[in-house]
Amino acid sequence: MTQQITTHSAADDAQGIAFGSFMAAFGVALLTHLGLITGQTAGLAILIAYATGWSFGAVFFVVNIPFYWLGYRRFGLSFTIKTFAAVLLTSVLAGLAPGLIQFAEVDPVFGAILAGAVCGTGLLALFRHGASLGGVGIVALYLQDATGFRAGWAQLIFDALLFAAALFVIDWQSVGYSFLGAVVLNMVIAINHRRDRYIA
């Protein structure tokens, strides 16, 4: 029997983007409580926030602005609108988080693993509903289309440079914990984001 393929409704996408943004913002709140970073554009925004004292939410929103045109060119209008909504919501929630949730004591290894898993889950939800958190991933895919240089390698190079730069802002132990969290996040994405395992 042939299985009928259905697509997400607007309500499905709205709840998926809200859930993904909420999880990402919670992960960022945990990371910043521990003084850690992550990879990609969110990690860059966290590092800038540490170095300047500016709000992560504001930095994250502004840093993503240049990437929307590339997102539109590569993925279309629907993706760009959804990504803009996800970035805006994540920025707002991350800005509100310090007044809404407070952590007492969190082991940095456990916290890094938890933050990586939570952020990975949030990104999975966003990917599943045709959105992302913008930034470096869009540029990497655009470069792949234009030059043939693999997107995964481009993102890896960016993250390597980001973590190297972090050594000038946070201590090496925190960079190590951050790397652990980033590995967990990427494992969540690599293992679970498989288009051959879902149809809608």
TrEMBL record:
InterPro entries: UPF0750_membrane, YitT
Protein name: YitT family protein
Species, as recorded: Paracoccus tegillarcae
Record field: transmembrane: 16-38, 44-71, 83-103, 148-169, 175-192
Extent of the signal sequence: none
Assigned keywords, A-Z: Cell membrane, Membrane, Transmembrane, Transmembrane helix
Chief place of localization: membrane
Membrane topology: Multi-pass membrane protein
Keyword field contains Transmembrane helix: yes
Keyword Membrane listed: yes
GO cellular component, one term: plasma membrane
Compartments, record wording: Cell membrane
Pfam family of the protein (one): YitT_membrane
